[in-house]
Design a protein that fits this description.
Length: 181
C-alpha cells in the first residue's frame, strides 16, 4: 500500500494557495484555472464591481484585473503559512503603487466609495484563508490592513483637493453603473 504523507499534502496545498496569491499580480485566466476550482470564489467579491463577482477562474481573473487597473508594481512577500485539513492560511505583505482609480461597490452593485489615483506606494499586511477542494482553491477570504493602506496612499486624512477628486470620480462611476458599463 502506497500512502502519501500528510506533510506532502499540506505542502502541495500551501504551494497552490501561494501560487494563487502571486497570480493575482499577472496571471491569466488559464494560469488561474490551474489553481482555482471551477466553482471557486472569493468572499472579497462583495466590494468588487458587479462584473467581477462570479465564481471560477474567469471571475477571479476579473477581480485581479480590477486590482491591476488600480495598482502597479504589485508584489507579495509571504511570511508564514499554516495548514489544517483543507484550510490553508497565508500571512503576507502586499506592495504596490496606485496608478488608477479604485471604486468600491455595495452588495447590490451601487457605488460605495471612489478613490482617485495618488501615485503613492503602499505595503499592507494581509492574512489570506483558502478552503481547498480537489487540490485547488475553492473559497478565499482575507483580512487586510485597509486603514494602513489608506493612510499610505493619502486617502486619509483626505485633503480638500483629494475630496473633490473623490466626489468627481464617484459621480462618474455612478453614471457608468447606471449606463451599464
Amino acid at each position: 500500500m502506497n500512502t502519501i504523507s500528510p506533510r506532502v499534502v499540506a505542502d502541495d496545498l500551501t504551494s497552490v494557495a501561494i501560487r494563487g496569491i502571486h497570480l493575482m499580480v499577472d496571471g491569466s485566466v488559464a494560469d488561474l484555472a490551474e489553481v482555482t476550482h471551477p466553482d471557486g470564489f472569493t468572499r472579497e467579491r462583495k466590494a468588487a464591481p458587479p462584473w467581477a463577482r462570479g465564481s471560477g477562474p474567469e471571475a477571479i481573473h476579473a477581480l485581479a484585473e480590477w486590482l491591476r487597473d488600480a495598482f502597479t508594481d504589485m508584489s507579495y512577500d509571504i511570511h508564514a503559512t499554516a495548514v489544517e485539513n483543507d484550510l490553508v492560511t497565508v500571512y503576507a505583505t502586499m506592495h504596490g503603487r496606485q496608478i488608477g482609480p479604485l471604486v468600491f461597490y455595495t452588495e447590490d452593485g451601487a457605488v460605495d466609495n471612489a478613490f482617485p489615483a495618488t501615485g503613492k506606494t503602499f505595503a499592507m499586511t494581509e492574512s489570506h484563508w483558502f478552503r481547498m477542494r480537489d487540490g485547488k482553491i475553492f473559497e478565499h477570504w482575507a483580512n487586510r490592513d485597509d486603514l494602513g493602506m489608506a493612510r499610505q496612499l493619502g486617502w486619509l486624512p483626505p485633503s480638500p483637493v483629494f475630496l473633490l477628486r473623490s466626489i468627481q470620480l464617484e459621480r462618474r462611476a455612478v453614471r457608468e453603473v447606471r449606463s451599464g458599463r
